[in-house]
Design a protein that fits this description.
The complex is a heterodimer of chains A (121) and B (207). With 121 residues, chain A is mostly helical. Chain A has helices spanning 2-18, 25-62, 65-84, 88-98. Chain A has four helices and no strands. The chains are: A mainly alpha (121), B mainly alpha (207).
């Protein structure tokens, strides 16, 4: 009995799968009208987008554009560098301000480049 | 796949969009390209309408669902995230959800034995009426199932999709798909068994 019901159901599924309704022009027209109306709404969004980006470009303009921003970045890196490994004249000032000197080894000590350790002995 | 490839080869010269994936067309649409919507509609609407028709057994309701599903696609275009899902996977999900919503409302509006009997007529008309009636009965049967079961059964047996595809569409595991389709199909067979004569499935018919 169940087998028969399953067969009937499989017949019904097969029949349903054969249905491939033709899309008529009226439906296409409605769908495209929706698309055009929705797309027209995006135009407003796109107008608004530059304003959102505007804050970033406003800051950039204020500091003098990309070249200046690049210089600023370089200066920042140099500042960090000086803070970590100040050259001798600066080190005194740094020590004065910070109270202690932090030495960061940037070149491995065993390369034999130290002045007190000449290669020829 | 072969069909899609043939279509792409055939239209490559006439349709500048033919080789673009759906997601790229959707992005072009979001960026204001007026032809992208036409290309997407030609590509996707037949499948969307087919799925809705098979699930609902009603042409007019299927058209409403198809238009609604495409509207949701237009609206989501600017926020579409690449690589997250295929456009077709997303549409299968949207259409399945819209259809089970419709079926639920239909179930509330109409009790099962109020379905009109097929009318008498010439044999060809009678056959067509019976075909329509069977599709309507199938949709009513799906309406009687829990929504997730109805969706899984429809995607498996009406759309002919694989279990992994259905798992992606419904965002569940393959094991859950197997369980939903098995339970759904069993329940549907039971529901439709009560309408055999009406569906033209006579137990005495010669096999």
């Amino acid at each position: 009995m169940t087998g028969r019901n399953d067969d009937n159901l499989d017949d019904l599924f097969a029949q349903a799968r054969k249905q491939a309704p033709k899309v008529d022009d009226a439906l296409v027209g409605r769908v495209l009208a929706d698309a055009d109306a929705t797309q027209a709404g995006f135009a407003g969004r796109m107008d608004a987008a530059p304003r959102a980006r505007g804050i970033r470009s406003w800051v950039r303009d204020m500091i003098g554009g990309w070249p200046a921003a690049g210089g600023l970045a370089a200066a920042t890196v140099a500042g960090v560098w000086f803070g970590m490994a100040p050259p001798a004249p600066v080190a005194d000032v740094t020590a004065l301000l910070v109270g202690e000197t932090i030495t960061v080894a940037l070149v491995p000590g065993d390369l034999g480049l130290q002045t007190g350790d000449p290669i020829d002995g | 796949m072969a069909d899609g490839l043939a279509r792409k080869t055939m239209n490559a010269e006439t349709d500048p969009f033919a080789t673009l994936p759906d997601a790229a067309l959707l992005e072009a649409f979001a960026n204001g390209d007026s032809q992208a919507a036409r290309a997407l509609t030609a590509r996707l609407l037949p499948r969307v309408l087919g799925q809705a028709t098979r699930m609902l057994g009603s042409r007019s309701e299927a058209e409403d669902v198809a238009q609604d599903a495409m509207m949701r696609l237009w609206k989501i275009a600017p926020d579409w995230r690449h690589g997250e899902a295929e456009v077709t996977t997303w549409l299968y999900r949207v259409v399945a959800n819209l259809c089970t919503d419709r079926l639920r409302k239909r179930r509330r509006a109409m009790s099962f034995d109020q379905v009109p009997e097929p009318q008498d007529g010439t044999p060809s008309v009678a056959t067509r009426m019976q075909d329509d009636h069977r599709m309507q009965a199938l949709a009513d049967g799906l309406a009687a199932l829990p929504a997730r079961q109805a969706q899984a059964v429809a995607l498996r047996h009406l759309e002919g999709l694989s279990n992994p595809e259905i798992a992606r569409i419904m965002d569940i595991s393959v094991r859950s798909v197997e369980s939903l389709t098995a339970r759904g199909k069993r329940a549907l067979a039971g529901i439709l068994a009560g309408r055999k004569a009406e569906l033209g499935y006579d137990d005495d018919r010669p096999e």
